[in-house]
């Protein structure tokens, strides 16, 4: 756009502004033909405008650009407290789920094992016949003939032949006897009836004053034990379930004892 202004016109305007200036001067200047006209052009001014709402644009750079090592920096990623708590809760829930699955698997395995064991036991009972246990074999009663002579030595010899016979508390036969039951049975084979207990057997017959005067076939007894004397300080007697009937010394008697002669 070009704008032009006349110097004469400008001069006239300036003159009209002068206070008290004669009007003839203006008229004379306007009528004069000696004036100069100047023209000047002013270029259009473009004003740069910035669009603050426009999105940023990307810029392409060369792949081999050197950024001073910044392109390879490992910047740690930080997380908020809420993110950390959420991750921890998710981790705990996952561990609880795994533990629950493992416990369920263990219980299933135990149940399966019990079922298999019960099934195997049931099959075993079906296959195996029930076998009744045979009664325990009783020891054979020794077959010893009773001597025809009836004296103390014969009684001692006869009683000694039953060494090894079993001991049974309350028993009165060679199948099993206790101490007084043994003495009573032996003398019974010779036709002599004796009391059942050792304390009562310690009072039968005739008392023998001392062991030095004792003879084979005499009864040696007290309230706890009874035996038959066989000589040389030895007696034959039923001892206990482990030893049965044995020939032992008089040490089997605890405390005093009575020597009695019935034959």
Automatic annotation (TrEMBL):
Belongs to the peptidase C40 family. GO terms for biological process: proteolysis. Residues 1-26 form the signal peptide. Residues 60-151 are annotated as: Disordered. It holds the Pfam family NLPC_P60. InterPro entries: NLP_P60_dom (IPR000064), Papain-like_cys_pep_sf (IPR038765), Peptidase_C40 (IPR051202). This is Peptidase P60. Gene3D superfamilies: endopeptidase domain like (from Nostoc punctiforme) (3.90.1720.10). Residues 149-263 form the NlpC/P60 domain. GO terms for molecular function: cysteine-type peptidase activity. Keywords: Hydrolase, Protease, Signal, Thiol protease. Residues 81-104 have a biased composition (Basic and acidic residues).
């Amino acid at each position: 756009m070009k704008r032009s202004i006349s110097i004469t016109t400008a001069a006239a305007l300036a003159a009209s502004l002068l206070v008290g200036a004669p009007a003839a001067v203006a008229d004379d200047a306007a009528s004069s033909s000696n004036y100069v006209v100047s023209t000047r052009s002013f270029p259009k001014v473009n004003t740069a405008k910035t669009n603050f709402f426009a999105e940023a644009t990307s810029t392409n750079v060369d792949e081999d650009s050197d950024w001073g090592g910044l392109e390879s920096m490992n910047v740690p990623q930080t997380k908020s407290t809420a993110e950390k708590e959420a991750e921890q809760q998710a981790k705990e829930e996952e561990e609880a789920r795994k533990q629950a699955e493992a416990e369920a698997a263990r219980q299933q395995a135990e149940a399966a094992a019990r079922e298999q064991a019960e099934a195997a036991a049931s099959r075993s009972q079906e296959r195996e016949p029930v076998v009744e246990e045979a009664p325990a074999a009783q020891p054979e009663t020794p077959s010893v003939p009773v001597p025809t002579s009836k004296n103390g030595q014969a009684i001692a010899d006869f009683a000694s032949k039953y060494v090894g016979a079993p001991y049974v508390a309350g028993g009165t036969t060679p199948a099993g006897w206790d101490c007084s039951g043994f003495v009573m049975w032996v003398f019974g084979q010779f036709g002599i009836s004796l009391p059942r207990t050792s304390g009562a057997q310690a009072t039968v017959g005739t008392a023998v004053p001392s062991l030095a005067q004792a003879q084979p076939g005499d009864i040696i007894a007290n309230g706890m034990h009874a035996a038959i004397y066989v000589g040389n300080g030895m007696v034959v007697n039923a001892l206990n379930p482990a030893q049965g009937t044995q020939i032992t010394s008089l040490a089997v008697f605890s405390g005093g004892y009575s020597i009695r002669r019935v034959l």
